[in-house]
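RECORD TYPE: protein structure
NAME: Dihydroorotate dehydrogenase (quinone)
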Amino acid sequence: MDNSLYSLVFRAVFAPMDAERAHHLSFSALRAVDSVPGLRAAFGAVLCAGTDDPVEVLGLPFRNRVGLAAGFDKEGGGVRALSRLGFGHIEIGTVTGQAQPGNDRPRLFRLLAHDAILNRMGFNNSGSHAAAAAVAQQRELVAALPASRRPIVGVNIGKTKVVEATEAASDYAVSTRELAPLADYLVINVSSPNTPGLRDLQAADSLRPIITAVRDTAAEVVEAPRSTLGHVPLLVKLAPDLADGDVRDLVDLAIEERVDGLVLTNTTIDREVLAGEDRAFAQGEAGGISGRPLAERSMEVLRLVRAHLDRVHPGSALALVSAGGVGDARDVTARLGAGADLVQAYSGLIYGGPAWPGRLVRGSRGGRRR
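PREDICTED:
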């Protein structure tokens, strides 16, 4: 769909609608298209044209360096449909050990003047067991695609809200046991602002046992990992609101604990990234902000981590996945040039439409660091 046409549809149809309802409607429509063989083939052929730009990261064969960040497909029911848009990887979640409803509605808002989203979803999902069933079904569907069209499937896991922080490691292990056999890689989410106390788990003393529990459980339940690393790659997703010194400390911890990568970054609680009516609205609402206003800090954290690795841990194989504020192909090229191995996006898909991922990939081909 032409971008100008999608913009007209978005402003006329989706913008006036409750944001969460619009999300469910558009996602359902995408899956409906994917359920019709001839239609899905034509849809995928058009949108995926020119998106093959293979690269190996984390010991896995990515179709290209641009992926869909966690949050769009919370339980893994639309992996094949989303792969038709041209993404090289799909990260599902955040999935929690137990099912939970999330926060009260309304909990998802558009900040139209900034091409941004404010959410306080609260990890609403049906739990790790249900997600595992959905991902297993999607993996069967994806396996029928040509090898060059199969997306890498990442699974983002978080803490169940009712579980005490002292039991967090065991809770993450529950999700790992269910989902590690189905995941190409796992991401530990300790950085969402929408679960009380979750960001406190970024402290070294709290994060270390979680990393150990997830890594050990994955090794126990996965005998033949898909990655050439010899294990299920493990990443940690960090908040953009950490002080620079804390970011460096977490990089050191990741190296010490043999983490394979970092996702930089999650949503921000900083309202100063907004202006005008959007800022006034956001100041009265809880939740994290994603989209263009996050771009500057996300890039700062990426550069900070890359510089720290080069200075303190030269030769480290720690993979960096840059997320937050990616709006166009120039942003992708800039992230790759600043040291990212992969780039993820989400809010831009809402504002850019189904043809947007392909434009990102085609416009950033050849953008390689080193």
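COMMENT: DSSP finds 13 helices and 13 strands in the chain.
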